[in-house]
């Protein structure tokens, strides 16, 4: 599967940092979430509209994160999102947080598609799955 990597700019705000002046480790997960959400938005899909119209939500099933270098207040970062595995009811994203050419954090995020009412697995809409599994 060949997917174009989606890139979203992230500015580090003071609220993102800890007492040591570096980005608090959990905030990288927020940055990854923003990149995935903006990737969907760039394809014409809003998560609230998917819930209302299709009855689906996307939830994080698991995350593997490697913290390599710190980000600091006011840094301009790039959060990437790339689908590496797409199945009927789940996606795997490989994601990076970079500052210029430096990789600061990398992760593998397994995302499940669930029925918004029952919280049971539900198929990703075909039109969305097609967009996610083809270079856009």
UniProtKB/TrEMBL annotation:
Pfam entry (one): 4HBT
Keyword terms: Hydrolase
Matching Gene3D superfamilies: Hotdog Thioesterase (3.10.129.10)
Cytoplasm found in the keyword field: no
GO molecular function annotations of the record: fatty acyl-CoA hydrolase activity
SUPFAM superfamilies per record: Thioesterase/thiol ester dehydrase-isomerase (SSF54637)
Keyword Hydrolase applies: yes
CDD domains: 4HBT
Domain Thioesterase residues, every copy: 20-105
Family indicated by similarity: Belongs to the 4-hydroxybenzoyl-CoA thioesterase family.
Record's protein name: Acyl-CoA thioesterase
Gene: ybgC
């Amino acid at each position: 599967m060949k997917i174009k990597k989606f890139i979203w700019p992230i500015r580090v705000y003071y609220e993102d940092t800890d007492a040591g002046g570096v980005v608090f480790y959990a905030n990288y997960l927020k940055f990854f979430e923003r990149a995935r959400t903006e990737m969907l938005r760039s394809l014409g899909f809003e998560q609230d509209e998917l819930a209302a119209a299709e009855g689906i939500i996307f939830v994080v099933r698991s995350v593997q994160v490697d913290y390599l270098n710190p980000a600091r207040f006011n840094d301009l970062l790039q959060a990437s999102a790339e689908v590496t595995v797409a199945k009927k009811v789940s996606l795997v994203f490989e994601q990076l947080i970079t500052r210029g050419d430096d990789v600061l954090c990398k992760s593998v995020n397994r995302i499940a598609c669930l029925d918004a009412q029952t919280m049971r697995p539900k198929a990703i809409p075909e039109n969305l799955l097609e967009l996610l599994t083809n270079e856009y």
